[in-house]
Amino acid sequence: MTRNSALAACAMLIPAAFAAGCASGPPRPDAQLARAEASLTQAEQAGARQYAGTEYDAARDKLGEAQRLADKGKNAQAGMLADEARVDAEFAAAHSRHASADKAATEVRLATETLQEEARRQQ
Fold this sequence. Notes:
Layout: H1 3-22, H2 30-45, H3 48-51, H4 53-71, H5 75-121
Helix pairs in contact: 2-4, 2-5, 4-5
């Protein structure tokens, strides 16, 4: 191989390598994973383990799978699954807040009934 033909071969390989690098797909979805993690933490703080265990577990499982996919370089799938995990976690948090408020309302109603019963006895 002559020097000119070696230079020509290198000149053809450099753009091909550059094009392959650009076509590697979406970047790792670190921001989506972080948002899903934050939503899961908020759901846990809202009592999701107690009030929305199924939804919380689904969110946690999806986040774990999204992290595994991202580690394997399957970034598009990982991003979509991380978004699903975030939505599931937000739903679990909302469900928990609703259940907690419902429980508090029931406690207030029962306390009010007890007070009314006490007031009737004292008449």
